[in-house]
Design a protein that fits this description.
Layout: H1 2-22, H2 44-68, E1 71-78, H3 84-92, E2 100-103, H4 110-113, H5 119-122, E3 130-135, H6 144-147, H7 153-172, E4 175-183, H8 186-198, H9 208-215, H10 217-231, E5 238-242, H11 246-260
Parallel strand pairs: 1-3, 1-4, 2-3, 4-5
Length: 297
């Protein structure tokens, strides 16, 4: 036994020397997608500093889109309470809403239910010089509509068949199409649901559908897996955002979005503010003739 152990140690030493000579060994295998390492919180100062940098780049991206006439569509999908809305808010808060629009459609009307399924989404696609962010999208059919029984099996199967071709058509038409799936663990989703119950400013975010989704975690997981199998295409692949930590998810998603679009910084034309003209000849009406908002603060 001692001889075998000695030989084993010699082989291990030899192997270490060989690996050191050749350089670092192969990367370790990634964890399965359903197993997530704990994510440390990012310090507020670091988060705010990095977000400010990214928002400057988003402003550059916006100008490039407008000047060059690009058409960009970004789809945000994922679990309830996964942080999609917060990420969209950080993207848009420093951009021009006439150039970067958010589309968050309500449930279809009776008329829309009789239309071609993609029709109500097509009307919101960007024109030249625009970027559209879909806060949930046509993928409702592969998720909530299928799991909750709001569509037939025939409609569901037809969607899985036609969606890849629909997206290929968008890409061929010149649209830059990017799709994100925000992934959150069941434990973190439950924590956020409980927080929404206690916070009156977030209570509106909880709907009967959200509560039902808590009971159908497995069904939603199976629907997501099948959706990926059909719609994770080369022309428009899915990108998964680990969203158990909201701040890290926002930074990672925005950074990745900027990396996918080959934008260039386009310097705006220099502006010089001329001197203000004199107010000579203007007399302001009496203040007591106007109704002011009470200065409570």
């Amino acid at each position: 036994m001692s001889e075998k152990k000695g030989k084993l140690k010699e082989r291990e030493k030899g192997g270490k020397k060989a690996r050191n000579a050749e350089g670092p060994g192969p990367m370790p295998e990634l964890l399965p997608p359903d197993i997530k390492m704990p994510v440390k919180k990012i310090p507020r100062k670091v988060y705010e500093r990095e977000l400010a940098k990214l928002q400057v780049e988003l402003a550059k991206l916006q100008r490039w889109i407008r000047v060059t006439g690009q058409k960009v569509v970004v789809v945000f999908e994922g679990r309830d309470a996964a942080g999609k809305g917060g990420t969209i808010k950080r993207i848009t808060e420093c951009l021009n809403p006439r150039i970067c629009r958010v589309v968050a459609l309500n449930k279809p009307t009776e008329r829309e239910r009789t239309q071609w399924y993609f029709q109500r989404y097509v009307t919101h696609l960007p024109a030249a010089g625009e970027m559209v962010l879909f806060d949930r999208s046509w993928y409702n059919r592969a998720g909530v509509e299928w799991v909750m029984g709001f569509c037939t099996e025939e409609e569901y199967v037809e969607f899985l068949r036609s969606c890849p071709e629909f997206e290929r058509m968008l890409v061929r038409s010149g649209i830059i199409l990017i799709k994100y799936w925000f992934s959150v663990s069941s434990e973190e989703q439950e924590r956020r649901f409980q927080a929404r119950l206690k916070d009156p400013t977030k209570r509106w975010k909880l709907s009967p559908i959200d509560l039902e989704s808590r009971l159908r975690w497995v069904e939603y997981s199976q629907a997501k897996d099948r959706m990926f199998a059909y719609t994770d295409i080369k022309q428009a692949p899915w990108f998964v955002v680990n969203a158990d930590n909201k701040k890290r998810a926002r930074l990672n998603c925005i950074h990745h979005l900027l990396s996918l679009i080959p934008y260039e910084e386009i310097e705006p034309e220099p502006l010089v503010l001329p001197p203000r003209p004199s107010e000579h000849g203007y007399v302001r009406p009496p203040l007591d003739e106007q109704t002011f908002v009470p200065e409570v603060y």
